[in-house]
């Protein structure tokens, strides 16, 4: 083989390997993006399921003519659990949205 053909073969081989690496990297990003998008949908559904059964806290205190709720007491039982789950899932939803934004660039 002549020197010129050796260099040409080496050049084509390097370009082929660079293309394979870029395809693998792009495929990995697309896969991660799809997984994060699926996770975003699941987190959104969980948020809806967790927020819907919660009691509203919009009642005015009795001194202003409203029914008054006992908002100064800590919630117990089911309400406390729903509050904690809502906080955790909403933070995960927010972080996942940021991760999707970063991957889209």
Explain what this protein looks like in three dimensions.
By secondary structure, the protein is mainly α. Helices cover 72% and strands 0% of the residues. α1 packs antiparallel against α2. The longest helix is centred in the N-terminal third of the chain and has 49 residues, at 3-51. It starts with a helix and ends with a helix.
* Count of spatially separate domains: 1
Q: Which residues sit in consecutive blocks of at least 5 with pLDDT less than 50?
A: none
Secondary structure: number of strands: 0
Question: What's the helical proportion of residues?
Answer: over 70%
Structural class: mainly alpha
Radius of gyration: 27 Å
Q: What does the largest sheet look like?
A: none
Number of helices: 2
Overall pLDDT level? 76
Order of helices and strands: HH
Strand proportion: under 5%
- State the shape: rod-shaped
Distance, first to last CA:
45 Å
